[in-house]
Amino acid sequence: MNTSIQAINESVQKSSSWVRPLQNEIGRIIIGQKYMIDRLLVGLIANGHILLEGVPGLAKTLAMKTLAAAIQTKFQRLQFTPDMLPADIVGTLIYNPQEGKFSTKHGPIFTNLVLADEINRAPAKVQSALLEAMQERQVTIGDTTFPLPDPFLVLATQNPIEQEGTYPLPEAQVDRFMLKLQIGYPSRTEERAILDLMATTNPPTDVTAAVEIAHIKEARQVVNTIYMDDKVKDYIVDLVWATRDPKAYKLDLNGYIQFGASPRATINLTLASKAWAYLQGRGYVTPQDVKTIGMDVLRHRVIVSYEAEAENMKSEDIIKKIFDTVPVP
Q1: In angstroms, what is the C-alpha Rg of the chain?
Q2: H-helix or E-strand spanning residue 277
């Protein structure tokens, strides 16, 4: 087994040579925010959609535009607004009176990277237009189904839902995001560097392509080969099950959880842990990899009860307690 893991290690190190140049290129435009950039790369190589939440002005949109430019791929930005319609995203059928028949007009979702900017500014019927695209990577217009380009990723930003003019995302929509990131303010040192770089009428926007799509697809194949021990697999299942049946794991959460994480969480936590190991240049997953990426995979999948809200307990508090209690292999 050691020989095979060593071979996977070598394969990972060989195929991940593009990671550092890509991080450096994004780092020229985005100062700090290492947490956000690392998770964007996890989603990219694990083929998972990402939801970023934070107050305006934290470079969420800029980071995604920079990533798209740095990987030489087709990119569309969709600004979600209250008056949007589903057809504005997926497309529609247009009647041609001369020919007496309908023709299909594809929407902007037919691209590789979709930036759904301020996704919670639009009502649920518009957000739900993304459901089929995010899960099946296809879109149905009329009675015809069209496959989406490969790769296809939705990178969405949202303002905290307490803000004016926002709508909560439907649970089915939220669950389709592999990761939900909570973006915070930069440090004082980083903000000083941001001032030096961006406080100009011509801020830098030129991004050099650092990686090709072929490298991303190769990385995804290598991620599939990364070794995960049965004990680590059991650990992942235990973490997800602890969100559904906390008493079985001796967790006294007093009915704080209304709904636990779905099986999609198990799949995504496995893939994200492998992708995190890949970014570290390793061909095997450790329990620490699971704990490092676990909060981002689970925070939006654990729905807290009214009792938890009354006691000001968030899903992050519950997940942290689960990570602290479930035995680590």
Answers
A1: 21
A2: helix 263-279
